[in-house]
Amino acid sequence: MMAAKPAAFAPPAPLLTSPERVRPLISLEKAGVTFGRGANAVEALTPTVLDIEKGDFIALVGPSGCGKSTILRLVANLIRATTGHVFVGGREVGAERVGIGMAFQNPTMLPWLRIRDNIMLPLKIVEPFRSEFRAKRKGEFRDRAEALLEVVGLKGFGDKFPWQLSGGMLQRANLCRALIHDPALLLLDEPFGALDQFTREELWAILQKLWMDRRPTVLLVTHDLREAAFLATRVCVMSARPGRIVADDIVPFARPRTLDMTFEPDFVALTQRLRALIVDARTGKV
Amino acid sequence: MDALSERTRQRLKSGLLILSFFVIWEVACIVFKVSEIILPRPTVVMGALVQFFPGIRPHLMQTLYTTLVGFGLGVAIGVLIGAVIGVSRVAYDTAYPLLVGFSSIPKVAVVPIFVLWFGAGTTPAILTSMVICIFPIVVNVATGLATTEPELEDVLKALGAKKFDILWNVSLPRAMPYFFASLKVAITLAFVGTVLSETVASNRGIGNLMMIASSNFNVPLVFAGLFLLAGLGVALYVIFSLIERRVAGWAMRKQDFAMG
Known about the structure:
The structure holds two protein chains of two kinds. By secondary structure, chain A is of the alpha/beta class. Chain A has nine helices and ten strands. Chain A has a single domain, classed as Rossmann fold, CATH 3.40.50.300. In chain A, helix 8 (225-231) packs across helix 9 (265-283). In chain B, helix 2 crosses helix 5 (122-146) and helix 7 (163-201) runs antiparallel to helix 9. The interface between A and B is medium-sized, with 26 and 21 residues.
């Protein structure tokens, strides 16, 4: 816990003190990843221990190539741990179907579908929506997509094709696609990395609102320390490759956080501390 | 309205240019006194076409039929092989060298083998046009399927999508522009295959007609056959372009965009 003074703001987020934390939603138990074999082997992630509680918002920061995305991909069951275990929902990853929404820096909208249909793509694939897709495509599911579009400020753009939208708008749509099936777990890999500062800050507020309304567990990989401190309940700092977690801080500021807060001394102190940690990690001091 | 007339004017221009190609040909033949046995004038060719049309017609239908059947088979088999190769790494590594090797063989060399197996006539012509079609289709379909963005695949895999879900929702639609591009190449190649086989071993079809005409020194008729083949090729190409616009028009948005 850092030395921030919660008194400067409203009381800390209630989730952190809630007693109903029984077992973490996600648990990495000495999970390590090595790509390749023998002489060509590259250790992407040293055996890492990390627990993430249900409803938490974790930001992973660190120098590039440190294995942040590797952790994300482990949790999404896109790659397997070479050593150790990854538990999601209390069982080995993959054993239990936990609803997962994912978004990357590249919005990857399908160019032949309208924005609305792009957003509804997960409903076409994930049960229980999948079996009702034909019946509800033009009714309930459509309304769901429209409601989300409105939240992210894209009301009226559902009929457009992806190439008619700007990068920032596509990234908003990308968030909608990641959330349309109400996933318990939201995995974000530098989703705002390619956007300009103003759009980025606007999307922080939108993401914060979406998180507060729906309370998915979020794992956010980012390079932007202000972004991490603004959004997350916990920030994990990773070292240079092979990555490991060198600091794990709780961000105490009350929600909803505002952009003005990011200029308060406590906030600045936190981001500067994170920055110092990453500089050390880059130069291998930690 | 301005955009429309602009477009029409452009079309008119290219139409005139195409026409002037034939005019130059015609004039050059007259000016340089080119013998009809060497290079007949376009008007003479058209004359021969009209004059012999009742006799040409069955050959034309035969060639069209053979080509379309061969093309259809080629598309079906090509898509199948392309899909397997595009999805599976092992299939790719195994089948690709074989395909490249096979498609490097000049198809003229294959016709005698088909004739040996099936006798002269329609069957070797269909097979030749099929064989010649397959390669571009396989390559394009496989490429289209294999170029799904890995990030999008990750999004879908994280959702628990099966391989088939990804294939159906993402890879196949994505492969459509590639597929249509290959269809346009393949349909013109299919004519090559058919005519090749008809020339070597058949007593029907435009290829055969041109063989007989040239041995009779009826050069205008030979050229009439060429014109017909070119016309058929263009007609089928246009048909596939129109279908492409409907099915895979999203890939050509920039043109539409520029058109306003």
